[in-house]
Prior knowledge:
By secondary structure, chain A is α/β, with parallel strands linked by helices. Chain A has 2 domains: about 1-5 and about 260-345, Alpha-Beta Complex (Aspartate Aminotransferase, domain 1), CATH 3.90.1150.10; about 15-255, Aspartate Aminotransferase, domain 2. Helix content of chain A is about 40%, strand content about 20%. The first copy, chain A, is built from 14 helices and 17 strands. In chain A, the strands form 5 sheets. A 7-stranded mixed beta sheet of chain A has the order 2-10-9-8-7-3-4, sandwiched between helices. In chain A, strands 13-14-17-16 form a 4-stranded antiparallel beta sheet. The longest helix of chain A has 23 residues, at about 260-280. The interface of B and C includes residues 31, 99 and 135 of B.
Amino acid sequence: MIHLESDYNNGAHEAVLRNFLETNAERTQSYGDDRFSEQARTLIREACKAPDAQIWFLAGGTQTNATIIDCVLQPYEGVLCAETAHINVHEAGAVEFTGHKVITLPAHEGKLAVRDLQEWLKAYFADETAEHMVRPGMVYITFPTELGTLYTADELKALHDVCRQYGLLLYVDGARLAYGLAASKDVTLPLLAQIADIFYIGGTKCGALCGEAVVFPHGDAPGHMLSRIKRHGALLAKSRVVGVQFEALFTKDEGEPLYMSIGTKAVVLAMRLRRLFVEQLGYKPFIDSPTNQQFYIIPNDDLTRLHQHIGFEVWCPVDERHTACRFVTSWATTDDEIDTLEQVLSV
Amino acid sequence: MIHLESDYNNGAHEAVLRNFLETNAERTQSYGDDRFSEQARTLIREACKAPDAQIWFLAGGTQTNATIIDCVLQPYEGVLCAETAHINVHEAGAVEFTGHKVITLPAHEGKLAVRDLQEWLKAYFADETAEHMVRPGMVYITFPTELGTLYTADELKALHDVCRQYGLLLYVDGARLAYGLAASKDVTLPLLAQIADIFYIGGTKCGALCGEAVVFPHGDAPGHMLSRIKRHGALLAKSRVVGVQFEALFTKDEGEPLYMSIGTKAVVLAMRLRRLFVEQLGYKPFIDSPTNQQFYIIPNDDLTRLHQHIGFEVWCPVDERHTACRFVTSWATTDDEIDTLEQVLSV
Amino acid sequence: MIHLESDYNNGAHEAVLRNFLETNAERTQSYGDDRFSEQARTLIREACKAPDAQIWFLAGGTQTNATIIDCVLQPYEGVLCAETAHINVHEAGAVEFTGHKVITLPAHEGKLAVRDLQEWLKAYFADETAEHMVRPGMVYITFPTELGTLYTADELKALHDVCRQYGLLLYVDGARLAYGLAASKDVTLPLLAQIADIFYIGGTKCGALCGEAVVFPHGDAPGHMLSRIKRHGALLAKSRVVGVQFEALFTKDEGEPLYMSIGTKAVVLAMRLRRLFVEQLGYKPFIDSPTNQQFYIIPNDDLTRLHQHIGFEVWCPVDERHTACRFVTSWATTDDEIDTLEQVLSV
Amino acid sequence: MIHLESDYNNGAHEAVLRNFLETNAERTQSYGDDRFSEQARTLIREACKAPDAQIWFLAGGTQTNATIIDCVLQPYEGVLCAETAHINVHEAGAVEFTGHKVITLPAHEGKLAVRDLQEWLKAYFADETAEHMVRPGMVYITFPTELGTLYTADELKALHDVCRQYGLLLYVDGARLAYGLAASKDVTLPLLAQIADIFYIGGTKCGALCGEAVVFPHGDAPGHMLSRIKRHGALLAKSRVVGVQFEALFTKDEGEPLYMSIGTKAVVLAMRLRRLFVEQLGYKPFIDSPTNQQFYIIPNDDLTRLHQHIGFEVWCPVDERHTACRFVTSWATTDDEIDTLEQVLSV
Lengths: 347, 347, 347, 347
């Protein structure tokens, strides 16, 4: 049985666990001032080529989105996103809980179109009743998206330009950033750090037990972030729990941070899976995803057989005889697992 | 240098780390449905002799307090506590962030007096303008308190009875519960599970890297807790991160859960510290604490010397020549450290 | 100059002012317990044929929507509405300010389609991840809609049935209820009181200086409404300010409450306007509205001339040579004004 | 029967009603842009000698406090006040509903002591854990206080200086400002406009049907106030309802705004009441109040007799044989009423 249900059905990368063991005896400061968090920040700044970056470590993705969005928006501002965005669909209203409206635009394979954004903003600012409406304060995108797709560097730059033009912040949810960076042809951490006002480097789905690193690459976070984060219940007393993990993830491993090689490995395996499904089994992609989340249209007759060998998630019905399914690789997926899959399914 | 600044300046108990290593290869469900969380719940129910208990695992203490208080209170209700209570002082307004008032009563060495509570409630319900005031919905206490002191079983029962009489919930913040149970003469986990409507078993300060176990001992949590917790940003996707730790902490170690022996060890060392400070060095206790937090009145002239050997926290000035200081033992404090301290300070 | 910009550009109906004068010397209770509010409640219950109805008086429409929606929803619930709904567009995020998501469905001339609602609810409750999404707790509709259109009695019943099936509350925003009731062929106050779980009878736009009457026709409002309303800042100390007005509006005037004749008069004048615009001036309706809000497609060349005689609101561009405009009659519009308009425009 | 239960048990001053009648036919802008609100602002600026003042009109006192406090505080800030303050006791948690902590200091006959404030702020800013606590952002006082007492000009200046020193805003709740100004020896509207960062001129209790005028005397309100106020549900569509009233209240009447003479009249009658109670009936003051709220210690044996002639409020028991009671005059109290009272009670 191979488990491709999600990228958070596993433990942690061995380098992460090893760092817990090696650092366990040390006594540290708390609330973010521990040596490991400091060192992790230094490594992340280097990887981002963003020496002024301010970095906070939070425990999980929904928490990070809701906390940071609330920290940087004015009270009367809302956040624009694609209608499929995680904050709009699968966060149980955590952003609205903080008092902010999530304003949706059409999604194009999970992506926000620059043109849609431009038109919406133009109409909003031309509207005489705009002051009676929620003011847009931020554009939220995910990289990769909830459907595994990626923005190109040009698309990110165009979104950035529109945000500048209208005075909005560009926030990038990087819950699966490792896999996005590995698959992208032109988006790198330093580029992201140039283009985004705020982004987070996802740990939970990319090798850590828990934890996300929020980056303000230009060093312009609002004041009193510790108090702001704490009132959201998102400040870890024993902050080393995330610091130790990001120190491990951003320590270099054969020339690049482990975080990068984690992403690369999962994407290579996802591409092997793709060849198996498309070329050998003849399934059609439901979404053309270059990252670790793969979506295929599976004949319903094949579902039982597949389930004998693979744990995966049924996404949605396509027609009466086909179902879209999601198969997710991660740092924890092994070459052996894909080998086995090729063997048992190719028969 | 011996570090007694806090009980969260350390890593995790070795049994916790070991469990991470041993379970790492396993693939699990998420959002609380993983095997480790399930097993930890079973062990906690046994330790509490509360077979109907509902249990959720959250990441930290402030998060737990704010989330759970908001989950169980009606919107127009507030929470009563001692004015020194953690939710009133050191949570950056996290409870108010959820829309609820924290209503304070006098603190007696960190404790809420039954008589004060009774009088306040009697006056509130007799007040003709009560509907214009925040209605009390819960009594919040800490066990042990922020000053290391403990309620006796009789005091807890009396608080419980007043809560029953007026229809309030009794919530016990057990951030340092291990140390409280170890030091108490008559309060046990099963007793707590009988008396409290809700309590949490602190992990972060008691051997875990992070994590608190919220217990509704009578199985009467409100519906849709997953959604409620998630909208607070407090639901961990990879829930095993806390489950694995509480499985380790509640696995029996020489007849009782490790959590108990962790508490006992720290309290024994705290008592050795006390003898050293009081009997040998002649310092007076600032608060008479039987638990792992010890507070002494230190002559200012001694501060420098103490700081050479011990990391500790300055609490508050007492008079012009004396300062109250806090010394905290934990599961991570060793006999050797106290031995050394005795040697260097007794000279 | 005839003012058709809105139905809140005026003072109050003379009967309302007269009641202020006649009652001014009387001393009353406050916070809703005054004699005038009591009498207004009695009159409204009679007009609704809802003897068990609970009624609260608030000051304005956005306040009423946000307060009441928050009072009746569970914290983790959201409110479903058409994307053109007032709560979604023109309330500056007041519902989200209370922590609830506004979930939008397509609008059909301002109306929510039963079929859309049914499909959305079916999909939501079939979704395995539903607990991670905001749970629908209420359907919000406006009668008449923001575009002046009306639901038929059958449509309202069908919405009510879907709400029952899925356990949702049906809430009707009646900011312009007088005009809707006057124009509807089959919806009456008693019918509304049967079908809706909660609705409000708009005063501000229908003859009052301010004030809306929130009706729970089945007497099943949640407890502690006074406290709930007050914490939203929506409880009037001198509650008679709205009570006196609704007493006047629901006092019978030639056999029916004044509120009804106010609506009828404005709708009659709106229909005269329609004949003038459509039959004599040859304008096309932008929306086919039977109520006091009329929308026409005006050739841009005519705009200046119209503006010389009428105050009205530009709604949106239709094409390069035409603009949709809104003309609103109210209780304050007079026959003379429409006579004059016919004269000056027919030339 | 003379009604001295409260200063909101009445209708409106006849000049207010008259202005409604005289302006009723006029068509106006809405949402604060109406001619009457504009004129009222001009009159208030003159009365305050504050030409740069920004002024908003809201409907009621609790609404005003919660809305404005939330508008000007940073999210992580709280508001300091006396423990008897209206926002702390009788607003059903409306401030906490907006996410801010109300931080209490001792009350001295309803007043905040400069010394207490200074000491608290000194301790807060010296505390190393301050970032984990709610940051003070504002000092809230009432003029007059809930107990009818007044700050002197010197006391207000001292509070202002402390606020400056620590970067806090000074906010004055003037629900009964007319009566405070009338009774004060040295506090005038222009002085208040110099000293306070924000204050509100209470209408509901001082001659209006409803409405409070919020003044930012130095013209430094945060941006987007319309949106901010609207998301609190506090923006009146038909804003003239308050504008018309404040236009009447600030129109000059024998040399000074009507608002001033309203206050003076009520205070003169309160002083007559005082002489009657203290000198003729021999009652002792419970609080030494110079304003329209009078508190006396009444022998329980006299309560029935008093209740035959006066409507008043029982405040609290004093001892077994005495009760503190509140007697409130207002603009609506008449000389005749006090004459009658003197007659029937002196017998």
